[in-house]
Specification:
The complex is a heterodimer of chains A (197) and B (159). In chain A, 70% of the residues lie in helices and 0% in strands. Chain A has 197 residues and is mainly alpha-helical. Chain B has a 3-stranded antiparallel sheet. Chain B starts with a helix and ends with a helix. The chains are: A mainly alpha (197), B mainly alpha (159). Chains A and B meet through α2, α3, α6, α7 and α9 of A and α1, α3 and α4 of B.
Chain lengths: 197, 159
């Protein structure tokens, strides 16, 4: 395969060539999937520079482990798993370095989400996509990393409870409870943003 | 509605509830207005998130981003330690280990043949193909001679 063919080649073919050491093929794979990998890192980290750095690190790891890629999942999914693991490691490190927020402590001990009033009006109804995205971004930023991560993995990555539990090293019950809290909190935050219009 | 029922409602929404329990929650939704309202809130939140990531793009050019990755790959490949050439000592050790084993066997055989008057005080055992053991009960000593595999394991641990 010549370099000219790379832009039209399928991922599988590019992976096979890159596994033999062809960096140009790998560069094409990076170009194709870099936005998705960055978006995943950004949704988890909520920090542009960290998301850039971690997605770069994920690509370097992807190259180093490329020979282990057997094609069970798509290349994009495989790379996404790498960046998710890097983000989780980074978030755990950050958590160890700072004191937990009062909100997170309340959630662990009191289960505040059980007593939140149920919203009868959809706070996102009628919003333009751009506006909706901005509001969701702001609301997600206010969640603790555990709640944000469980939402991201479930809603964006469409992972099952047991897969999330494995990735986050916790029980399925914890995943269910975090997801429930995250959704309820997110709904309340979106409603607050709607009120402040 | 208790917390357990709330979580089951969520699992029902996510399609993670076993069929028997799903029927139970479907019945709850048919009767309980509070459950219906909570279900609608959870569903709306889920729907709001779908597609909210569309259009997120890495704020760096293709060339610049790739140049950083490429540089890092080369840097890491350079910093990986090259395989060490085997030293003269290691070569000697490789030669001496099996030779030593053979010597231990020869000593044991010699004692067994010519030291019969001492009875069962000497014993030689080859319990493992990679290890030779020699017991001298009269002197209260045990000699274990390890050959290749053990030597390599030891070396690997300290590299």
């Amino acid at each position: 395969m010549t370099e000219k063919d790379y832009s039209s080649a399928e991922d599988q073919k590019l992976v096979r060539v890159a596994q033999k050491g062809d960096m140009a093929a790998f560069e094409e794979l990076v170009a194709r999937h870099r936005d998705k990998i960055y978006a995943r890192a950004l949704s988890m980290m909520r920090n542009e520079q960290e998301a850039i750095d971690l997605s770069q690190e994920a690509w370097v790891k992807g190259w180093q482990r490329l020979k282990q890629f057997q094609g069970e999942a798509s290349f994009g999914t495989w790379m996404t798993r790498i960046v998710i693991n890097l983000c989780l490691d980074q978030l755990r490190k950050q958590k160890r370095q700072r004191t937990e927020s009062i909100e997170a402590m309340t959630e662990e001990s009191g289960g505040v989400e059980r007593h939140m009033p149920v919203l009868t009006v959809n706070p996102t109804a009628g919003l333009e996509r751009q506006e909706l995205r901005q509001r969701i971004d702001r609301a997600l930023s206010q969640l603790s990393y555990e709640h944000r991560t469980v939402l991201v993995l479930h809603e964006f990555e469409e992972m099952e409870y047991k897969q999330i539990a494995k990735a986050m090293e916790c029980s399925i019950g914890t995943v269910m409870s975090r997801l429930f809290y995250a959704r309820r909190k997110l709904a309340a935050l979106l409603a607050d943003l709607k009120k402040s219009d | 509605m208790d917390y357990d029922a709330q979580l089951k409602l969520q699992s029902y929404l996510d399609g993670e509830l076993p069929e028997s329990e799903a029927r139970e929650i479907a019945n709850l939704l048919a009767q309980d207005r509070e459950a219906v309202a909570l279900f609608a809130e959870l569903r709306n939140t889920r729907q709001a998130l779908v597609g909210s990531e569309v259009g997120v793009a890495l704020p760096e050019s293709r060339e610049f981003f790739w140049s950083k990755i490429e540089r890092e790959i080369y840097r890491l490949e350079k910093s990986e330690p090259a395989p060490r050439p085997s030293s003269v000592f290691a070569a000697w050790r490789r030669f001496l280990m099996p030779a030593g084993g053979v010597a231990a066997l020869a000593i044991a055989a010699f004692i067994g043949l010519f030291g019969g008057s001492q009875g069962p005080t000497h014993e030689m055992a080859v319990a493992d193909p990679g290890a030779f053991t020699y017991h001298d009960f009269s002197a209260g000593t045990t000699l274990v001679w390890l050959t290749y595999p053990a030597e390599n394991e030891f070396a690997d641990n300290f590299e």
